[in-house]
What we know:
The chain has 285 residues and is mainly beta. The protein has helices spanning 227-246, 250-260; strands spanning 6-8, 13-18, 38-44, 52-62, 66-70, 91-97, 102-105, 116-118, 122-127, 141-142, 145-147, 158-162, 170-176, 193-202, 211-213, 217-224, 262-265, 273-280.
Amino acid sequence: PYEPVLCISDGDTLITTTLDARGGNAQGERVAPRGNPLTGPFYVEGAEPGDTLAVQIERVWPNREFGFSRGVVASSVVEADYVRQLPEDLDVRWYIDREAGTATLFEPEEHLWKLTLSLRPMLGCLGVAPKRHQAISSATSAQHGGNMDYRGLVVGVTCYFPVFEEGALLFVGDGHAVQGDGEIVGTGIEVSMDVQLTVHVLKGKEIFWPRGENETHIFTIGNARPLDQAVQHATTEMLRWLQSDYDLSPNEASILLGQCVEYDLGNMYDPAYTMVCKVAKQLLH
């Protein structure tokens, strides 16, 4: 239902900014409601249902010097009997040194004094408009992408999304300066970002779930709950990809995955979980 904020074409490079998960901008001012406000949509000319939108991630970098995270793991990642022992949640503040490329606890706990982490900026939310005119919250994810919180969505990655609506309607947001696998506290180190993306329309290329590649791997992404369903989506999409683009037979694709597949845990906090199925490119030459 949102009017595009900009129309772009195949091959165009988009330079923009994102807000943090609570709607804060580069100055720390809240300019949008909390809950993963997104930048977009961007209308990509020529993108039609049945096509694939390729999105090259070329820059993701914090544009301010402070971020925040939550401080208690989610009940979904601990045993049921342990949930009652979890402490009350709290906000954790981080100082971001953009020149040094680090994030340091601003108000550290006793045994985490001067905890400093190397920045690995990523996009928590990236995707297109869902199919069948659905309105899906930016708190979750599905075939269109969305809030996948996969720490592999970093600079150097090209993502592929199935196009369900005319113009694809690309959205981006929820930048994390650092995040562990699974986003198990419900956040990374949340911060606003400077972002640069280049888009390409792959005409007549139909895919069913998000895909991606970096220098070393190809990967597919399944978003669902329970977690085994997310695994099924990601694995099925990888089997399709190996057969359609790498000319492997169904048996060959299965044999390869059986001994060489790698799985990454994306989001394990939100309504839909995210699982990533990976294959090393060196196996596909």
